[in-house]
Amino acid sequence: MNLWRWLFGVLALHALLFSGCSTSRGRPGADAVSVDPEDIADFSALYSQNCAGCHGPNGKGGASIALADPIYLAIADDSVLRRVTAKGVAGTQMPAFAKSAGGMLTDPQIDVIVKGIREHWSQPDALRGANAPPYSAPIPGDASRGSIAFTTYCSSCHGPGGGGGPKASSIVNGSYLALVSDQGLRTAVIVGRPELGAPDWRGDVPGRPMPAQDVSDVVAWLASQRTKFPGQPYARSDQPVGEPR
């Protein structure tokens, strides 16, 4: 009798183990269908996997600018969105996402992202009749004039010389300037950073929108503040390496 009980227990244990293998967590079911990453064509999935980490889960901004900003989308057309998404921006945190540029996304997937951003977050009358400065500078700015324009339009928040003030942090920090392109500076001056409470080009001085040339000049002045060795905490020394300081 004990032998029969032992055999029955062994058979029951085997049945339990084999049934557990077929239904264990994480194991695909018989009807599971694998999806090739290149076949994903849903905007929400593509945005959350590739863009949300920097631009925010709902496009509201984070480490990078808000994409759910109608003012930004009013000055940046689809060709801009497609180029930046596909090729990235050299020298900044924005990587290239297109396979043709070393990324992981196909050209149709890039198109899905661009179309989705436009459909979800643009507004036809975002500018309300105002003439915004162009996305790209038509002519180079002048840094000396930019210093004056900065004092007029920006210093009330960012402080004299851009080193930080009561309403905003330093805009001439070496590490920050090393990570942002001239176009990134221009975009921030025009559209502001609404997620941080920074106004667009119309709100720096009430009733006095910032002229397009002043935008270019301020960007030129900010670019001139970049240091050769950003983030270095002390002046370079000619003292040989290894000698006591």
Can you tell me about this structure?
It is a single chain. This protein has 245 residues and is mostly helical. Among the domains are: 41-121, Cytochrome Bc1 Complex, Chain D, domain 2 (Orthogonal Bundle), CATH 1.10.760.10; 143-224, Cytochrome c-like domain (Cytochrome Bc1 Complex, Chain D, domain 2). The protein contains eleven helices and no strands. The protein has helices at residues 2-23, 43-50, 52-55, 70-75, 78-87, 107-121, 143-153, 155-158, 174-179, 182-191, 212-224. The longest helix is centred in the first third of the chain and has 22 residues, at 2-23. The chain is globular and about 65 Å long.
What would you call the shape?
globular
Main beta-sheet strand count, sense and barrel state: none
**What top-tier CATH class of the domain at 143-224 fits best?**
Mainly Alpha
CATH topology of the domain at 143-224: Cytochrome Bc1 Complex, Chain D, domain 2
Can you identify the CATH superfamily of the domain at 143-224? Answer: Cytochrome c-like domain
Rg, Cα atoms, Å: 27 Å
* Contiguous uncertain segments of 5+ residues: 241-245
Order of helices and strands: HHHHHHHHHHH
Class computed from helices, strands and strand pairing = mainly alpha
What portion of residues is helical?
40-55%
How much of the residues is beta strand, in percent?
Answer: under 5%
Discrete helix count: 11
Strand segment tally: 0
Q: Overall pLDDT, averaged?
A: 87
Task: Label the CATH architecture of the domain at 143-224.
Answer: Orthogonal Bundle
End-to-end CA span: 87 Å
